[in-house]
Amino acid sequence: MTKKKPVNARSLFFPIMMALTVLLAACSSGNGNEESSPSATTETATPTSSASASPSASETPAAEDGLYSINDFSNVKKNEGEAIKGGSITFGLVSDTPFEGTLNFNFYSGDPDSQVLSWFDEGLLTWDKSYVYTNDGAATYEVSEDGKTFTFTIRDNVNWQDGKPVTAEDWLFAHEVIGNPKYDGPRYDSNFTNIVGMAEYHDGKAKTISGIEVLSEKKLKITYIQSTPSLLTGGVWSYPLAKHIFGVMDVAKISASPEVREKPIGFGPFKVKSIVPGESVVFEKNPDYWRGEPALDEVVLKVINPTTIVQQLETGGVDLVDSFPVDQYPDNATLSNVEFLGTIDRAYTYMGFKLGKWDAEAGKVVPDAKAKMGDVNLRKAMWLAVDNDQVGKKFYHGLRWNATTLIPPSHPEYHDSTNPGVAYDPEMANKILDDAGYKMDGKFRTNPDGSELVINFISMTGGDIAQPLAQYYVQSWQAIGLNVQLEMVEFNSFYDRVGANGEDDPKVDVYQGAWSVGIDVDPSGLYGKDAIYNFPRYESAENDRLLAEGISEKAFDVKVRQDIYKQWQKLMVDEIPVFPTLYRAVLAPVNKRILNYAIGDGTNLYPYQIAVSQDKPFVKE
Amino acid sequence: MWRTVARRLVIMIPQILLLSILVFLMAKAMPGDALTGLLDPSIDPAAMDAQRVRLGLNNPWHVQYWDWITQAVQGDFGQSFRFKMPVSDLIGQRMMNTVWLSLATLILTYLIAIPLGITSGRFNDTWADRLITGYTYIGFAAPLFIFALLMLWVFGFHFGWFPTGGSVEPGTEPGTVQYVASKIYHLLLPAISMALITTVTTVQYLRSEIIDTKQKDFIITARAKGASEARVYNRHILRNSLLPIAAFFGYEITGLIGGTIFIENIFSYPGMGQLFLSSISLRDFSVVTSLVLLYGAASIIGALISDITLSIVDPRIRIK
């Protein structure tokens, strides 16, 4: 199980125009590069200092009533014009914080760093549209009959940028460093503990990792304890660590070493030429790149502030950016010199209901039958009462839209589009509450036993619309007679109180959160009974069964797995420990001179193919 | 006087110690810690706990504080959780950028303030004076961050005269002339933006001092002796009027600290201010506490410098 992280606004907010958003880590939407690192991404509304786009006729997705739809966006850039030889592009890393500079896949923790990394390094494995490993990458793989043993073969022409070959030893070395107790990065997770002998090695009981074997210079064999379909979707650690450089260092000191921070090395299409710590990096092409010589001569990466992103795009200051605040799109949809690419984000926003507590001793959730939100009728009524379709249109111009199930459409194989979720129907909501005995007493309803019902709702601050959005939900619930009290909370307190450390605040009944989901569809890290991030503290036998089946051996059959997750999505719509509110779009503006570029997964376009049709970026007319 | 300075420096130690305790407590009172943001279902909560124990985050605050302060007095401010490098190296990397930016701002502030202040004071109640005081009122009223954004938009993006982010052109070789030129070019716009706002206090001060001094008896005496107008202004009025300005110099440093935090964020200029804000929101405590301590020390030293300069330029004042 990999990669799930809360999406939300982790941001300080200045009274005016300055959103100090901080991106910790996020899965990048690169071409098959994987991060198993998680955490808070940001989705704040970042208003720009100014942005006046004069509406004009153009080929950009048409907006009727100022509404847009993700279906009108392509994730692949239209190629206009002929590629010129060489050229230099500027990539804008949108962040108001400098990148940390831990420039090694085995050590980095922040998303900005991963953006830098993706230009000069890559994983040995790539994946397709369904996020399943392919044999098109720098290494190929074979799985044994029982699905537990993987044999990897690194291609002969895959070399480090100093000319030394990337070897199976290097790959093993990465596992040894991450498994070392002195390792200070965030990678030692269930993917590693699932390797035979890894726990013993980590505890110092074994000198080597028994489950990993170097067969030859370019061949590596890894044996996993449990075979699951998740292994094929991001379950393998595919980033080697150059042993001829780092082998002599103390593991605790690698992350701070100049070989990571100042002269980093990889085997990607570009080489690091120079770094100004925290603000810019110049890459030059790596002519010996294994896929072929890159088309561009140079890539300049610079950090740009979210407040100035539109101006940078207009003036051609940057050709590409790693992310674009969706709420700025309507004002800039007609920018003449860029094309907006779009794809569905691997994320959803949701409402969670607290149904129990976390037992830290046993490491499992303890549902409380008497929990305030324990009645499924109440939860269902609350879902029926909110019009997420309108929320998406009014607050996000259609670039976020009503969510139906807990597996977002970014996983088209598993998202059950036939499941309608629960649609807006306030009359039905009232009826359900009436039938369940929640009687009106004055302005608000009481519990069926006649006691007062006050529901405490917390939501995260950050961004212009955080507050009005939360207010909307409160009003919707008040409209069906529920006394909901809102409290806006900053990111850290929010997750503290929801229970990220296992100490749930008993005063929280309902919360609005967001998850960014991994490339693997398995949701047990968020809804399993032994998952601390199962914030609703929900448990049921049926849920346990489906989650276990989803990663069982029989689930290697995609049809079977699809059916299991279809049932699970249905179960979640019936039981409603949480309900999804919105799915979301990611947008990426690209200067029109850029060729062969795409966002999203499995597009078969790689950074070495990026080219330009003219020397200088197009500027806004 | 040196005894006084020494005594002030000694008093500084408990001041900074108290500050450090306050800062530490406040930092700890913030909800969450550096690991809170790492909500990753694939990481075993036990491993997170092990990290917390390793970082000492579970200890009571006084134990954590003692660990930190004993290290700090030895010059070791600990390790930044986020950057995975020693805090002192990290701050060292950023500090020079902030120092250059502050220095440039300071120079520009006085370059603007002195001629404007003198003109305004000498020719008070003329149109020139009204224009200048008009400007200072606008300067007082305009929040720095709005003004800076405006400057960035007009001169950075609209006219494209200045770079719009960073401290140096990517790819320039450190140590070369281009590198230095590029550095200066990059800090010019942020420095001007900040100077145009911070200078208004000094202009006003200078103006009122000059108007005030103009009416003093000794000026009348100087005039009566037949000193030329230029001599009266340059030798008598100006020298006396600059006193409070010189005294203000130290406090200016404190003001700059606040200003650079905004400016650095707006211009994506990687200095300490930017580091400070991002470290707060990421709960990178070791960096936050070290920076506050540094800022605190700078303010206290700034105040000391003010007192000393005051006693030097004005022999009537003696600090005791």
TrEMBL record, chain A:
GO terms for biological process: peptide transport. GO terms for molecular function: peptide transmembrane transporter activity. It is found in: Cell membrane. Its main location: membrane. It is a lipid-anchor. CDD domains: PBP2_Lactococcal_OppA_like. Residues 31-64 are annotated as: Disordered. PROSITE patterns: PROKAR_LIPOPROTEIN, SBP_BACTERIAL_5. Pfam families: SBP_bac_5. Keywords: Signal, Transport. Residues 138-527 form the Solute-binding protein family domain. Belongs to the bacterial solute-binding protein 5 family. This is Peptide/nickel transport system substrate-binding protein. It comes from Cohnella lupini.
Automatic annotation (TrEMBL), chain B:
One of its GO terms (cellular component) is plasma membrane. CDD domains: TM_PBP2. It comes from Cohnella lupini. Residues 95-306 form the ABC transmembrane type-1 domain. Belongs to the binding-protein-dependent transport system permease family. The chain crosses the membrane at residues 99-119, 131-155, 184-206, 241-267, 287-313. GO terms for biological process: transmembrane transport. Gene3D superfamilies: MetI-like (1.10.3720.10). It is found in: Cell membrane. Keywords: Cell membrane, Membrane, Transmembrane, Transmembrane helix, Transport. It is a multi-pass membrane protein. This is Peptide/nickel transport system permease protein. Its main location: membrane.
